[in-house]
Specification:
174 residues, 10 helices, 4 strands, two-stranded antiparallel sheet, mainly alpha
């Protein structure tokens, strides 16, 4: 299936918006930086149990992350004896996204390289996650948090791939 077909509606929306915010055109470099900073803030907040003392704020942040992740403590990394607010697989997904967007922000030539990846190859990166999930869910074989982190890190290429392709395709019309 053609990836452009899958995201045709989103692409058209981005073309209509044309990355304009209050008549200020946002360049793709700025967009990559904005996404990277958003993921960075998102990741920093996962450690919030270690540095935020306000109970109400911790509850608010915890409820936010609870909607995104199961937060099973046995599947979570601990820092200074306190659990992160997302599981190790989600940590891998967001860490991978942060790393890839940082690279895309700093090295613009990597954007074109990533855009030329074959979609089937990118989908193959989901195979380790599917194997890990089936070992856990179907066969009740527990894997380590590090393995979960790695499978999450690999799967993070898929949303980054699509976002990069979307930004690259909209940029062609500028």
């Amino acid at each position: 299936m053609n990836r452009i077909f899958l995201f045709q509606i989103i692409k058209k929306s981005f073309q209509m918006i044309n990355f304009r915010l209050m008549n200020f055109k946002i360049k793709s470099e700025s967009l990559y930086l904005i996404i990277t900073l958003m993921i960075l803030v998102f990741m920093i907040l996962t450690f919030s149990l270690n540095f935020i003392k306000d109970t109400a704020l911790i509850l608010l942040i915890n409820n936010f992350y609870h909607n995104l992740c199961h937060q099973i403590e046995s599947r979570t990394f601990f820092i200074d004896g306190k659990p992160m607010l997302i599981c190790s697989r989600c940590t891998g997904i967001y860490s991978g996204s942060l790393t890839l967007f940082f690279i895309l922000t700093m090295i613009s030539s990597f954007r074109k390289i990533l855009d030329k990846f074959n979609f089937r190859i990118v989908l193959l990166l989901s195979a380790p996650l599917l194997i890990d999930w089936s070992l856990n869910f179907i066969f009740k074989i527990e894997t380590t948090n590090f393995v979960r982190f790695l499978t999450g890190f690999l799967i993070s290429l898929i949303p980054v791939y699509f976002l990069n392709s979307l930004i690259m395709s909209v940029n062609k019309y500028d």
